[in-house]
Amino acid sequence: MESVANSVHLPPLENPNERAAVGAELQVVLQDLIDLSLLGKQLHWSVVGAAAHGVHVFLDELVGEWRELADVVAERAVTLGVVPDGQSSAVAAGSRVEPVRVGSLPDHAVVWELGRRVAAVAERIRERLGSVGAADLVTQDVLVRVVATLEKHQWLLRVQLGEKA
Length: 165
Fold this sequence. Notes:
Blueprint: E1 2-3, H1 19-46, E2 47-48, H2 52-79, E3 82-83, H3 88-94, E4 105-106, H4 107-135, H5 137-160
Parallel strand pairs: 2-4
Antiparallel strand pairs: 1-3
Helix pairs in contact: 1-2, 1-3, 1-4, 2-5, 4-5
C-alpha cells in the first residue's frame, strides 16, 4: 500500500509508526474479502440441484455484503493515509482464500465449500484483532464488524446444511 500520509490531518494512532502496519493488515483483509466475493460469484454461476435457485439468490446477497465490507475496509485504509490495492493482480497475489473447482457443483456442496472459506477468512481476521487494536481501536472496530458479519454468514450457511444453529 502506498502512503498518502502527507498531512497533519490524519487520525492519530497510539504509535504513528504503526500506520503502515495497520494499513498492511487492512490490505490483507481487503484482498480476502474481494477474493471471497469473486469466489461467491463463481459458485453462484456453478450451483445445480433442487435448491439451486435459493442458493443462487442467497449467494448474490452474500457477495453484495462482502463487497460492502471490502469498501469499508478500503476506506478505513485511506482514512489512515494508506492507499489500498484492490486490483485483480494484487488480490491474486495476496489472497489466502482457497480457490474452488470450476464446474457445476451440487447446491449442498456449494454451501459447504463456501462455509469453509467464510470461516477461514473470519478466523484469520479474528487472529489480527488484538494486534490491530493495540495500534488503533477504530480499525479494530472495523475488523470486528467484518468478523461479526462473516460469522453471521457462517451461521446462515450452516443452517442451510441442516446443522443446528
